[in-house]
Structures are given as C-alpha cells and as structure tokens.
Amino acid sequence: MTLQEQIKQDLSLAIKAQNTEKKDALRVAMGEFGRMDKKALSDDEVVKVMIKLIKSEKELLEKSGKPLESPFIQVIEAYLPKPATEEEVMAWIGENVNLSEYKNKMQAMSVIIKHFGARVEGNAVKAILQKIP
Question: Distance between CA 62 and CA 94 in Å, rounded?
C-alpha cells in the first residue's frame, strides 16, 4: 500500500471515528495531492508534500506568535519517515562516497541527498560535510 493510499484510508477511518483534528489535517494533505499533475503520487512525492505542509504550518504559527507545535503538525509528522541521524549519514558517506573525487566536498551533496531522499535535509548534509576534514 502506498503512502497516499494509507493516508486516504486513515482519512476515512478518522471521519468514521469523528477524530476532527486528524480528519482536518488529512483532508488538507489529500487536497494538496489533488493539486499535483499526477493522480497517483510516489511515496517520495507524498513525503515532499507533507514536509511542505509542515513548513507552511510552522511559518503561520511563528507569524502569529503561537507555539510551533500543533495537532496538525503532529498528525502530518506521523506519516514522515524517520529522519536519518548524523551518524547514519557519516557512516554512509564513509562507505560509499570518495570525497577526493570532488574538487569541493560540497559537490557530493547531491549524491548523498539522492540516496537518503526526504530522510535528510540539505542543510544537515552541508553541516555534516563541513565537519569532515
């Protein structure tokens, strides 16, 4: 079952259970999926949409001066993959990336981000690469 199908199924369960917070958050997500060109999205595309929704919600909360945690964010975050730890990224770089092949070690960012996908942010990869001597 794809992530999009799981969210659709969870939405119908939330509606039946009258779980308003979950229902509202998942309806927003499904609405965003509907705006995409494709009917069925890959899990990576779904995760990108979910990350965008969280970022947007946090910006709204920040502007309004409210705490950066909300039920909406908690519901959406439940569908995101576990973020890669710094140790995981460092270990993968050590095993799979020869930094001496690049003029600048920052050029290896695309390979690393492609491997980890939505599990790691570009800024985190940059910080990790800067720590490597």
Answer: 38
